[in-house]
Specification:
44% of the residues lie in helices and 6% in strands. The chain is mainly α. It has a domain of 226 residues. The protein has a two-stranded antiparallel sheet with strand order 1-10. A two-stranded antiparallel ribbon has the order 2-3. A two-stranded antiparallel ribbon has the order 4-5. The N and C termini lie far apart (47 Å). It holds the Pfam family EF-hand_7. InterPro entries: EF-hand-dom_pair, EF_Hand_1_Ca_BS, EF_hand_dom. Keywords: Calcium, Chaperone, Endoplasmic reticulum, Glycoprotein, Membrane, Metal-binding, Repeat, Signal, Transmembrane, Transmembrane helix.
């Protein structure tokens, strides 16, 4: 039986005004989130932005939507997961929550939880009408891509706004010491052993060090205080070109268990699969991933992924994340294979877009007017 690999790990948490406001340092493989016992009672779990790099590997020629017969298995990517760190594709199983968050935005996707399917479809229909810019009755890849970009921008703006409010004290910048006190102040009451205690290779001490490094990279004017633009880069490094190396560093650190600065085939596989028993037979999909590592990841054939090979894997140059997600959604719902979606196609596959969840309707429609 396959193990999920979702062992507990340490998560950043806040006391005071930032408790539960929404940010978690990405400190471990994207398969698990848990708060250390005893601290969870007083600290809000900080979660990663739903809008981490959307690296959906879709086969396409001249940007055409792939036909089902032409699709190959979508490869694993450690940055492609929903807000609870569940992988988009895990053990060949598709996680639609990832797509819900890309389509609606993380915050609004959560508010869909209480709606029955019929109401979810009805409200999705009104959203589809909003996406159809030229009102021709069909949703093109361009229109869907623009919607995904819109929801991403909106979520980031709102997430930064929430945390800016709690950190800035109405100032134009946030000093590092202020942020450190708000986020890591709870560490003052921990013993040295508690600070350095590791779960899955992660400790509170190392989390603080990681945030310090990310802060320094975002601090373009070197005053050790972040203005709003710099703070946005700090919270959402995957969206800022100058922060790509930070994303790369953090990903390598998460997967590189023996800390030799490179990723072996076993570490690569270990990021997505752990056997439940020592002699458990490896599933076919894991064997396929090993082939992917050899044929498409390890360019120089030395048995490891170095920094540049990891970069090509997780942050490929020129890759259009929103367009890839739009292509994926069209592939999932395009019954007649005309590379666009009708309203009925979307509603028939509503679970791909919103499932049994729906947006905070009145607020969403008011804000969607600008789209």
């Amino acid at each position: 039986m396959k193990s999920s690999g979702k062992s507990p790990l340490l998560s950043c948490c806040h006391k005071g005004p930032l408790a539960g406001t929404g940010r978690m340092c990405r400190m471990a493989p994207p398969t698990a989130i848990a708060l250390k016992k005893g601290i969870a009672q007083n600290c809000g779990m900080l979660k990663t932005s739903a809008f981490t790099l959307v690296l959906v590997a879709v086969v396409a020629v001249a940007w055409a939507i792939p036909k089902r017969d032409d699709m190959i298995k979508l490869p694993h990517n450690p940055l492609e997961h929903d807000s609870l760190h569940a992988a988009h594709f895990d053990d060949n199983n598709h996680n639609p929550q990832y797509d819900h968050e890309q389509f609606l935005g993380e915050d609004e996707a959560k508010s869909f939880d209480q709606l029955p399917p019929e109401e979810s479809r009805r409200r999705l229909g009104i959203i589809v009408d909003k996406i159809d810019e030229d009102k021709d009755g069909s949703i093109t890849m361009y229109e869907l891509k623009q919607w995904i970009l819109y929801t991403k921008r909106r979520y980031i703006d709102e997430d930064v706004g929430r945390q800016w409010k709690h950190n800035s004290n109405n100032s134009d910048t946030i000093p590092w010491e202020t942020y450190k006190k708000n986020v890591y102040g709870f560490m003052d009451s921990l013993t040295k052993e508690e600070k350095e205690h590791e779960e899955n290779g992660i400790s509170y001490k190392s989390m603080l060090g990681r945030d310090r490094r990310r802060w320094a990279q975002a601090d373009q004017d070197l005053d050790d205080a972040l203005n709003r633009e710099e703070f946005t880069a700090f919270l959402h490094p995957e969206e800022h070109p100058l922060m790509r190396d930070v994303v790369l560093d953090e990903t390598i650190e998460d997967i590189d268990k023996n800390k030799d600065g490179k990723i072996s085939a076993e570490e690569y596989i270990g990021d997505m699969y752990r056997a439940a028993e020592p002699n458990e037979e490896e599933p076919e999909w894991v064997t396929s991933e090993r082939d992917t590592f050899i044929k498409f990841r390890d360019f120089d054939g030395d048995g490891f992924l170095d920094r540049e090979e990891v970069r090509a894997w997780v942050v490929p140059k020129g890759f259009d994340h929103a367009e890839s997600e739009a292509m994926h959604l069209i592939f999932e719902a395009d019954v007649d294979n005309d590379e666009k979606l009708t309203k009925s196609e979307i509603l028939d596959k509503y679970d791909i877009f919103v499932g049994s969840q729906a947006t905070d309707f009145g607020e969403a429609l008011a804000r969607h007017d600008e789209f």
